[in-house]
Amino acid sequence: MSSDRTQTLASWTYEMATAYTRSAKVMSNTAKHFSHVRHKNPKASPAYLATSNTPSIKGNDSHRLLIILDLNGALVSKTGKSGMWVRPHYTEFLEYLFDQFEVGVWSSARQNTVSNMCQLFGNFKKQLLFTWSRENFGLSEDDYLRNISTIKDLQLVWKSLEDNPDMPSYTAYNTILLDDSSSKAALQPFNSIAISEFNHKDTEKQMNGDNELLDVIAYLEQAKYENNVSNFMKRNPYKTDLVNSDEVTERDFESTHFRYSDAKQTLGDLRNTAGLTHDGVSRRRTLEKKRPGHRKYRKSKKTSSSPVTPQL
């Protein structure tokens, strides 16, 4: 082997070893930082608690808060791997959010699933500050594949936005997480709106509809004038029924179904979500194929080796 090739190989080996060492250090630091993910009793830091105890002052001008959205359970209800139902009133909710605040997404689902669920944002998707998924929790390979409880440490978001000179400084003073799991906000408990879980199969939702996103809008209308939302939310925790829930309207039952494969949207009704199958195909069409008069039924009967009993 020539001296030039030997020198090149040695240089390449050194670079690879250096890169590996650097990567190992990063992973080690990440593991240390995320030790709370597997901690049984994660707690807010003394510094955070001191911030949440700093009295908030209500001003005349609103603040452009950072709103971090969870997806499944908060805004959508997945139907397997092929589609989702979206919470009623989501269009006016998104219009309000993107007009008043900066908005980001952080879901514990995997990146591909998060990408599918983000179809609900439509033209607003390009205005998202960030779209984080399970890949942003710093989980080990084993924990990433397991169904474990995760915690959304807002400090990671704040730090990631520090390098953007066009962004104001986001901290516990001006950030709100919207999530259907309060445990996700264990490290910053007074910066979280614990919205009720949205499940399109839930009997209560099917009977009474859902207008909780209107409650969230009403709550944010109060919070946006505060200069320390962590203190405001500590003193005034979010609760439902900020909007008169006795006045149930048809829109409280309107839910849009998204089919991931082609982003097809179908307006449905929570009282009859069974009208669509998991992939967004009309259940009537599915059932018709099983009836004796349908051509596909006749074809299957001819090719069947055993008698077929019609399923009406």
TrEMBL record:
GO terms for cellular component: TIM23 mitochondrial import inner membrane translocase complex. Residues 283-302 have a biased composition (Basic residues). Keywords: Mitochondrion, Protein transport, Transit peptide, Translocation, Transport. One of its GO terms (biological process) is protein transport. It comes from the Eukaryota. Its main location: mitochondrion. Residues 272-312 are annotated as: Disordered. Residues 60-223 form the FCP1 homology domain. Belongs to the TIM50 family. Essential component of the TIM23 complex, a complex that mediates the translocation of transit peptide-containing proteins across the mitochondrial inner membrane. This is Mitochondrial import inner membrane translocase subunit TIM50. It comes from Umbelopsis vinacea.
